[in-house]
Amino acid sequence: MPGPDSQLQIRPDLPIPDYLRGEIQSKLAYVDEHITRAVIPEGGEQIILYTDLPLDQPGQVALEEKVQRVVASTVKGAFKPKVQVLEDHLDRPLNYQTDPMIELVRRGEISQEAIFAAYFGV
Questions:
Q1: Considering only CA atoms, which of 29, 71, 63 is closest in space to residue 46?
Q2: pTM of the prediction?
Q3: How does pLDDT run across 84-108, given as a tens digit for each residue?
Q4: Residue 36 · residue 52 · CB < 8 Å
Q5: Is residue 93 in some structural domain?
Q6: Which residue in 16, 52, 58, 98 has a CA-CA distance of 20 to 30 Å to 106?
Q7: Range of 36's domain?
Q8: Inside any domain, residue 15
């Protein structure tokens, strides 16, 4: 039975802009099979990785190198997209009473990660 997650804190070489936090967080899930969760707090000056097993020093160094590459490739040349709302249909009555996310997961139309991102704004 797996124990509690181990935690690794990494200071990115490049600060992560807030508009890229969610994108980089989702990419970090694919950096290593042992990563169970990644958190980038506001400000983007730190990355907290949770792994399903403790990493030795060489493992931590290798993981940090992978993370730094992901951050650098995403941040370099990135620009904040201009958001322009053309039509707003949010102020209208809804025809359902329950949370649609549960049904979308059941159908396989979205993933658990999408739910987390939707509810926690990451």
A1: 71
A2: 0.62
A3: 888 887 787 877 778 887 788 888 8
A4: yes
A5: no
A6: 52
A7: 6-75
A8: yes
Q: Distance between CA 26 and CA 5 in Å, rounded?
A: 18
Which residue shows structure tokens 């249909």? 89
pLDDT at 121: 65
Residue 48: count of CB within 10 angstroms of its CB: 13
Give the chain's domain count: 1
Strands 47-51 and 6-10: antiparallel
Residues ≥6 apart with Cβ < 8 Å to 100: none
The token pair that represents 57 in the structure block: 């020093």
User: What tokens were used for 84?
Assistant: 């322009």
Q: What is the CATH number of the domain that holds 43?
A: 3.30.70.60
| 27-to-12, 51, 102 alpha-carbon distances in Å | 14, 15, 24
- Please give the sequence-ordered ranges of beta strands (E in DSSP) within 19-114, or none if there are none: 35-39, 47-51
Could you tell me which of 19, 121, 117, 118 has the C-alpha nearest to residue 74? Answer: 19
**Is residue 100 in a domain?**
no
